[in-house]
Amino acid sequence: MTTDPARPPARRGPYAKSRRRRESIVAAAHEVFAARGYRGGSLQDVADKVGMSQTSLLHYFPAKSDLLLAVLHLRDSITADGSPRDLSETLVESVMRQASFNETVPGVIELYTVLCAESLTDNHPGLDYFTERYEALRSSYLRAFAALADEGRLRPGVDPERAAATLVALWDGIQTQWLMAPELVDMAGCLRDYLELVVLPE
Amino acid sequence: MTTDPARPPARRGPYAKSRRRRESIVAAAHEVFAARGYRGGSLQDVADKVGMSQTSLLHYFPAKSDLLLAVLHLRDSITADGSPRDLSETLVESVMRQASFNETVPGVIELYTVLCAESLTDNHPGLDYFTERYEALRSSYLRAFAALADEGRLRPGVDPERAAATLVALWDGIQTQWLMAPELVDMAGCLRDYLELVVLPE
Fold first, then answer.
1. I need a surface site. Which of A30, B77, B117, B180 has the fewest CB within 10 A?
2. What is the ipTM of this complex?
3. Is residue B68 included in any domain, yes or no?
4. Which residues contact B144 (CB under 8 A, 6 or more apart)?
5. B71 touches chain A (CB under 8 A)
6. Domain of life here (chains A, B) (predicted)?
7. How many helices (H) and strands (E) does chain A have?
8. Is B9 among the domain residues?
9. Same structural domain for residues B63 and B138?
10. Of A25, A59, A75, which one is at a domain's C-terminal end?
11. Shortest Cα distance from B111 to chain A (angstroms)?
């Protein structure tokens, strides 16, 4: 996260201070949940990391689940899901750009992988977020593959709906393997190979 | 898990009783870890489920991590990773058989998904198991794809090593999506599509 030089300087005073406090809490929670999971990481761990009492922390985030959602939305602002940046960027370009970017932020990928699977456990407050996220991702890639099919650029026989689910699945799964053995797993190469199999050259 | 009628009846006496006790503890831990994760599920939860004190449980499994490894090995005995059952079964047949079987055991798939991702968190006793498992799976599918390449049945341009990592990744990722939305995700269809893309018909 860098400061945008085109932006006006942040406002001073109590509001700006409160916002910075919130940001530092969310950044600390991001580290704690990536290292220990949501269930394994306590509010006390987060409070300790920002040098604040748990009572003060609860003033900013009344429940641990509020902090989880703030962390997930921070993640969304860091990674952009490989959705096309503008109309001139192709599906393949945007996936490759995002995959290369992800290799620079293993902590963010770990957080996502850990919380996503953990959300399958009983009464986890992250389940709706991940379920909706998958539906949105599949819809987005379905539209991209359907548009390619209209242009005659989807390999004959490829089903756009299953291809969308497959791309999302492959991406998730290869990230897990890469986190465990980054020197053995060619994350971007596997994604590129798949896209080259299903998308015909212009 | 069914009883094999071809097997001799289990031995009676203290050894058989102890073995049954271990089995019921591992089955209970399987449920607890699938529902709450390894960190979120306590030894007390497991002890309560089998109606035993935590002290008695520790007689069978001295540490929680021993119980985790026993649960992972039980999982291995339930699912067989889609490796060919015998020489006459092709790669495609064995993957499809295993994928169809997995749809009948969502609890086992959930356990695997939750523990695998959780093993990425700090000092998790399951990390070596999963890291080694991925290496073994990639090697196994690499051999299968390399053999198909030797027969001229791998699509030209497909790299057997990346295809092996891709198949494993797709399988993991599609299981996660399927656990969240079984009615929306065609797990076996996505795996079949991928194999049909890379493996040429005989």
1. B77
2. 0.88
3. yes
4. B84, B91, B164
5. no
6. Bacteria
7. 9, 0
8. no
9. no
10. A75
11. 9
